[in-house]
Structures are given as C-alpha cells and as structure tokens.
C-alpha cells in the first residue's frame, strides 16, 4: 500500500515473467488460416465469449484479411447488446476500424421464444408469438443504428419456419427502416445466402455509414458503464456501491481512465436476469465487481450473477465424433 492509501500496480516484468510469456505467445500471435467446407479462406484467431469478454476475433486477423480481400466478414458473439457493442466500442476504437454494414442474424424460433413460447413448442407455427417477440430484434436494430452503421437482418431459416412467420419478421424489420433477407445456408450452403451477400456488398460499396463509438475516451469509467446500461440495455440506473466507485476512481488516478469498458452480463436478456425476455425497459444493472485488464486495454465490469468461467455441457460434442469404417468423420453436425 502506498502512503496515499492506493494500491501499487504490477506488470509481468516486475516478476520477470515477460520474456517467457513472450516466447509462449510468439506463434499464437499469428492468425490461424483455415479452409471452410466450400474451400474458402477464413482466419480463426481469438474469439472469446462475448458475454464475459469482448467476443471478437483478433485485430491482427481482421486487419490482415482487409489487406487481401475486397470484403471482410467478422463475427461478434451473442446478441448485438454484447458482441456488437464491444466490437464497436472496444475493437474498432482500438484498431481504428469502421464497419461499413452490420448483419444481425435472427431466427423465427428466437422471436417465438421472446414472444413467450415454450422451448418444446418452438417448432409449431405461431405468427402472433413471432410478432410479440419482434421488439427484441427491434432493440438490436436500434442499438446498431445508434453507432451510425446501416443494418440488414439475416433470417437464419429452419425447416419448421413457415412463410407467414418469415413474412411477419420481414414486415416488422421493414417498418423499422431496415430489411430482412431469408437465408438458407444450413440447407444450401453459400448458395442459400447469395441474396444477402449481394445486398451487403452493395451497401458496403455505397459508403453510407457514419460510424462512431457511443462514448469518448475522456468520459469517466462510471459514465461509460452508465452509457452502455442506459443506451444499449435501456436500464434506468447502474447499481454500484462505494467500493466499486472508489476502485474506478483509483484506476482513473493511475492513468487507466481512458480505457473502454467490457461488460460481463448474461447473454439471455437485455437485463441481468436471464429469464427476462423481450425488450424490457426501466430496470437496474447491478455491478458486482470490476477488474482491470491493463494488457488487453479495457476494464471488465461484472454484472448480476454472471460467471466468468464458462461451463461445459454434461454431454460434450466430442462424445459423438468418430471415424466410420471408411475413414470418414461423423458427428460434427
């Protein structure tokens, strides 16, 4: 403890671990080039969970792809309130990137679930539930537009989706000033997304976007948290006790006040309650803990009951993967 009562800040060089860590990361820093099922190149590099981390692939992978391709598509995990928000406010800010267009992927099943349908009944046609669940999609569209970027909705088609349900989503999205394109890539591969790809390329070429993060570097750390909670989650307030507030002020005094914040929150709701569906407003966002990730360059804000160590299913997918008698791989899908 310093004489002024603040805690000392340590880096890996203080414990002489910087050299060994650099050696371990030397090859890991190189983007991993892989081949898709249709023989297209893709970088798989990084990609942490968007509910507990920033949810995007590495800056190096994206900037490398931009140097060698006319169009680059990169994923930001979970809903636009998590992955897209962090892609815009953290990754694009740090890397100097400006997305031309955003694709929000939606399913009819998700609309019905947000409309109150039980998971066991999601395969049954229910246009009314689709309509009732669409405000959740609408919230994501509004959030992305708040960054000054045009939005297209890709409807990820399931075989149980009906024409009436698809039309309900398309009509809703159209009323919001965007468009929803039906995509059948699960059934037809890239052939099932030609309409989407052509429309995205057209919008990207038009350069109609005017991207800007939601907050500036100079805003206080608590102000950044409140900005996301109120503008993205539509909360009324952030609940942070004196210990949390003092820690944020301490980091600001230590020179970390210009860092962006990385919210750790349930992926199942705009609130911190995973059971609260739809597009709720007027709720509170309780902050349980804050962590400084000085090397990564952001402050992690842990909200509600979210656990930062992701769990695995009781039956992992690896149990179904095998080689058959002809040497072919089975169980991947």
List unreliable stretches of 5+ residues.
none
Q: How many β strands by DSSP? A: 11
Topology order in helix (H) and strand (E) letters: HEEHHEHHEHEHHHEHEEEEE
- Mind summarizing the main beta sheet? 4 strands, mixed
Structural class: alpha/beta
The termini sit apart by 54 Å
Key terms for this structure?
alpha/beta; single chain; Formyltetrahydrofolate synthetase, domain 3; 333 residues; globular; Rossmann fold; three-stranded parallel sheet
Structure overview:
The protein is an alpha/beta fold and 333 residues long. Among the domains are: 111 residues, Rossmann fold (3-Layer(aba) Sandwich); 83 residues, Formyltetrahydrofolate synthetase, domain 3. It is built from 10 helices and 11 strands. The strands form 4 sheets. A 4-stranded mixed sheet has the order 6-8-9-7. Strands 3-4-5 form a 3-stranded parallel sheet, sandwiched between helices. Helix 6 links the parallel strand 4 and strand 5. Helix 4 packs across helix 5. It starts with 17 loop residues before the first helix and ends with a strand. The model has no long low-confidence stretch (mean pLDDT 94).
């Amino acid at each position: 403890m310093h004489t002024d009562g603040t805690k000392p800040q340590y880096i890996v060089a203080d414990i002489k671990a910087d050299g060994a860590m650099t050696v371990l990361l030397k090859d890991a820093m190189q983007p991993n080039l892989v081949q898709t099922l249709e023989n297209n190149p893709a970088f798989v590099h990084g990609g942490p969970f968007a509910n507990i981390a920033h949810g995007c692939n590495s800056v190096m992978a994206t900037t490398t792809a931009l140097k060698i391709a006319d169009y680059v598509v990169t994923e930001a995990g979970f809903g636009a309130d998590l992955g897209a928000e962090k892609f815009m406010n953290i990754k694009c800010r740090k890397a100097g990137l400006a997305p031309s267009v955003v694709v929000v992927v939606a399913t009819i099943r998700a609309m019905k679930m947000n409309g109150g349908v039980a998971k066991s009944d999601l395969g049954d046609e229910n246009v009314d539930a689709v309509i009732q669940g669409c405000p959740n999609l609408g919230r994501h569209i509004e959030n992305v537009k708040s960054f000054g970027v045009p939005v297209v909705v890709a409807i990820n088609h399931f075989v149980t989706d009906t024409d009436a349900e698809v039309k309900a989503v398309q009509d809703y999205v159209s009323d919001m000033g965007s468009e929803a394109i039906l995509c059948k890539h699960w059934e037809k591969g890239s052939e099932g997304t030609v309409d989407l790809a052509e429309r995205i390329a057209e919008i990207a070429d038009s350069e109609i976007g005017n991207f800007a993060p939601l907050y500036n570097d100079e805003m206080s750390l608590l102000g950044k948290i409140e900005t996301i909670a109120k503008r993205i989650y539509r909360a009324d307030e952030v609940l942070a006790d004196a210990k949390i507030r003092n820690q944020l002020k301490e980091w600001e005094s230590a020179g970390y006040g210009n860092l962006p914040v990385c919210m750790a929150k349930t992926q199942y709701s705009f609130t911190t309650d995973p059971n609260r569906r739809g597009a709720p407003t007027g709720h509170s966002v309780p902050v349980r803990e804050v962590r400084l990730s000085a090397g990564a360059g952001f402050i992690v804000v842990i909200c509600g009951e979210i656990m930062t160590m992701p769990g695995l299913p009781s039956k992992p997918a690896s149990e179904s993967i095998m080689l058959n008698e002809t040497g072919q791989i089975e169980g991947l899908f």
